[in-house]
């Protein structure tokens, strides 16, 4: 099952990508179903099963070719969780180039964790703002992104994948000199607005199979820069979920970017950085391609982009009520 968010009458709407390559709104497939992707994820396994069954016969929605896709979760409830240095070749390629405050001698025994703020999220074909005049060191990082479906705290590695709803493609766009200037803390350089493209949709875990055996790649202007496999992750997804959930409850809709392989711009000889007009194409096998071009920052365009994500009240009952689940049932 492939779930996307698109604009319908100026509003974000959760939909299933049907076999005829149209987007059929979740609420049209399941009567009274949720309008928003976060509500779909909140609704739980019994609703997902109903939706999956209904999706097999879904047809005649908005043609994908004419739809404006947003990020699958256009406005996450909280920061996205991220893993650094999770491919050994990527760690090695950056040694000596990261700066004295950010140049560990070896990959740590525990995953390096940081986060990206919700305003960084943009969808397919949306512009990624260039950071000039603050910096010219704009870089790319394709990442397999986990979508949490079932809440949990202190999750064991053995049970970790039971908490995964599905996967999408992420691009951890980074401003490298800003990333290095804050005493080894990457947060600022990873958190410029629009610097976390996600999409084009969420593919449910049952369709992915083994998430540790997926080709992962990124192209800039048609030239391949990254080309690897998720089997080369140092910390696999169950270990990442175990570490993140230790003492901290994960919630439906949480997003986990799992690290990037070698081939990033700053580690190239000479270094390569993105310019206005460059096109990034991030791809993960069995999911699809996420395309975003780099654009000069425009306050007016930025405001319009944010406005398109606003959810206006509707007359429909809340999604949790519509699917027979209340907020107190999340742990059920």
What does this structure look like?
The protein is an alpha+beta fold and 332 residues long. It has two domains: 2-70, no CATH class; 80-307, Fumarylacetoacetase-like, C-terminal domain (Fumarylacetoacetate hydrolase, domain 2, Alpha-Beta Complex), CATH 3.90.850. The protein has helices spanning 26-29, 37-43, 45-55, 88-94, 176-180, 205-208, 237-245, 299-307, 319-322, and strands at 2-8, 11-17, 22-25, 62-63, 69-70, 80-84, 112-116, 121-122, 128-129, 138-139, 142-148, 164-171, 174-175, 196-204, 215-220, 223-229, 255-257, 279-284, 288-295. The strands form three sheets. Strands 1, 2, 3, 4, 5, 6, 7, 8, 11, 12, 14 and 17 form a twelve-stranded mixed sheet that branches. Strands 9-19-18-15-16 form a five-stranded mixed sheet, with no helix packed on it. A two-stranded antiparallel ribbon has the order 10-13.
Quick summary:
The protein has helices at residues 26-29, 37-43, 45-55, 88-94, 176-180, 205-208, 237-245, 299-307, 319-322; strands spanning 2-8, 11-17, 22-25, 62-63, 69-70, 80-84, 112-116, 121-122, 128-129, 138-139, 142-148, 164-171, 174-175, 196-204, 215-220, 223-229, 255-257, 279-284, 288-295. With 332 residues, the chain is of the alpha+beta class. The strands form three sheets. Strands 1, 2, 3, 4, 5, 6, 7, 8, 11, 12, 14 and 17 form a twelve-stranded mixed beta sheet that branches.
Map the helices and strands.
Elements lengths: L1 E7 L2 E7 L4 E4 H4 L7 H7 L1 H11 L6 E2 L5 E2 L9 E5 L3 H7 L17 E5 L4 E2 L5 E2 L8 E2 L2 E7 L15 E8 L2 E2 H5 L15 E9 H4 L6 E6 L2 E7 L7 H9 L9 E3 L21 E6 L3 E8 L3 H9 L11 H4 L10
Parallel strand pairs: 6-17, 8-14, 9-19
Antiparallel strand pairs: 1-2, 1-5, 1-14, 2-3, 3-4, 6-7, 10-13, 11-12, 11-17, 12-14, 15-16, 15-18, 18-19
